[in-house]
Amino acid sequence: MMKSQERLMEELNALNERQIEAGLVAGVWDEETRPFVENYLSQLTLQRIEAEAIEQVQETRKARDAAVFAAQEAVDAKLRANAAIILALGAMLACFLVILILVSRS
Question: How far apart are the first and last CA of the chain?
Fold first, then answer.
């Protein structure tokens, strides 16, 4: 890379997207340099969009994992509730049997 290109890269690395866009609109770079700057800006924009997409995918995965965990917890809670109902029915049946035994003895 030539010295002028290295210096241009240093200048561009120091700027953000909006500043580069403003520089392009203002005509800061000559016609020879402009395509390189436009390409640099496109790459910078693409990197930002990719980073945002990766972040969205990660957030989506976190949400999916939380939903799967919540669904499993709901299944577990339903199983515990069913077990409690069965135990309660068993206890009620035992109470009826005790009552029948007591009534039949009298």
Answer: 108
Task: Give the pLDDT confidence of 13-53 residue by residue, as tens digits.
Answer: 999 999 999 999 999 999 999 999 999 999 999 999 999 99
CA dihedral 99→100→101→105, nearest 10 degrees, is: 100
Contact (Cβ atoms closer than 8 angstroms) between residue 8 and residue 36: yes
Question: CB–CB of 2/27 below 8 Å?
Answer: no
| Rounded Cα–Cα distance for residues 89 and 99 (Å) | 15
For 65, the token pair is: 């994992």
Token pair for residue 33?
Answer: 């340099």
CB 40 within 8 A of CB 20: yes
> Residue 2 region, left (φ>0) first, then alpha (ψ -120 to 50), else beta?
beta
